[in-house]
């Protein structure tokens, strides 16, 4: 045993170490320390919740703008719609985005045909108020017109009353 501890094939070694063969020396070689590159990567995609949120389209504000029996001016929008859910009737135009608008001053009337819904505008003088419906106040656009008609009507009534009194 004594001879194995202090000697080796290549010569003497440290007395405390046993002799090591050439193959064992090759396997015991210490490789130099190579630091593994440590990079901390930040996320290049947002979290799952935040990427799916944050987009909202502006509302199109479709729908009926003037209802049946209400006064309307020429060029005023009656219905904004997607497609022709309601078709234009008399004195109503159809825009390229299917908007229905009035062609004359008058009152809006909704009708139902055998095949489709229609909206028409009739002149105020031809409009007959259906039973159970009361006259609604005119829109902002027609208030000056209606006020002028009312004043003229009142003046005419006053003249008739004066003539009747004489």
Could you provide a short overview of the structure?
This protein has helices at 2-6, 22-28, 48-52, 143-165; strands at residues 7-8, 11-12, 63-64, 71-72, 77-80, 86-88, 92-94, 100-102, 106-112, 117-122. By secondary structure, it is an alpha+beta fold.
Largest sheet, if any?
A: 4 strands, antiparallel
Structural class: alpha+beta
Q: What's the CATH class label of the domain at 63-144? A: Mainly Beta
Strand arrangement within the widest β-sheet reads 3-5-8-7
Shape: rod-shaped
Runs with pLDDT <50, length 5+?
147-152
By DSSP (H or I, 4+ residues per run), the number of helices equals 4
CATH topology of the domain at 63-144: OB fold (Dihydrolipoamide Acetyltransferase, E2P)
State the total count of DSSP E strands: 10
CATH superfamily of the domain at 63-144: RNA polymerase II/Efflux pump adaptor protein, barrel-sandwich hybrid domain
* Strand-residue proportion: 15-25%
CATH architecture of the domain at 63-144: Beta Barrel
Give the N-to-C terminal Cα separation: 158 Å
Mean pLDDT: 77
Helix content: 10-25%
Q: Report Rg.
A: 48 Å
Note down, in words, how this protein is organized.
Keywords: Ribonucleoprotein, Ribosomal protein. Belongs to the bacterial ribosomal protein bL27 family. The chain has 166 residues and is of the alpha+beta class. Among the domains are: 29 residues, no CATH class; 82 residues, RNA polymerase II/Efflux pump adaptor protein, barrel-sandwich hybrid domain (OB fold (Dihydrolipoamide Acetyltransferase, E2P), Beta Barrel). About 4% of the residues have low confidence. The strands form three sheets. It has a four-stranded antiparallel β-sheet with strand order 3-5-8-7, with no helix packed on it. Strands 4-9-10-6 form a four-stranded mixed β-sheet, with no helix packed on it. It has four helices and ten strands; from the N terminus they run αββααββββββββα.
């Amino acid at each position: 045993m004594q001879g194995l501890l202090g000697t080796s094939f290549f010569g003497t070694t440290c007395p405390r170490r046993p002799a090591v063969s050439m193959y064992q020396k090759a396997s015991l070689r210490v490789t130099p320390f190579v630091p593994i590159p440590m990079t901390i990567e930040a996320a290049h995609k947002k979290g799952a919740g935040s990427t799916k949120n944050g987009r909202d389209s502006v509302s199109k504000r479709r729908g009926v703008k003037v209802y049946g029996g209400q006064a309307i001016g020429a060029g005023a929008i009656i219905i904004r719609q997607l497609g022709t859910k309601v078709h234009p009737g008399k004195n109503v135009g159809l825009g390229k985005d299917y908007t229905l608008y009035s062609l004359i001053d008058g009152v809006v009337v909704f009708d139902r045909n055998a095949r489709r819904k229609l909206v028409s505008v009739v002149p105020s003088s031809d409009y007959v108020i259906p039973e159970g419906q009361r006259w609604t106040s005119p829109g902002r656009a027609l208030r000056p017109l209606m006020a002028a008609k009312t004043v003229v009507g009142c003046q005419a009534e006053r003249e008739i009353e004066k003539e009747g009194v004489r």
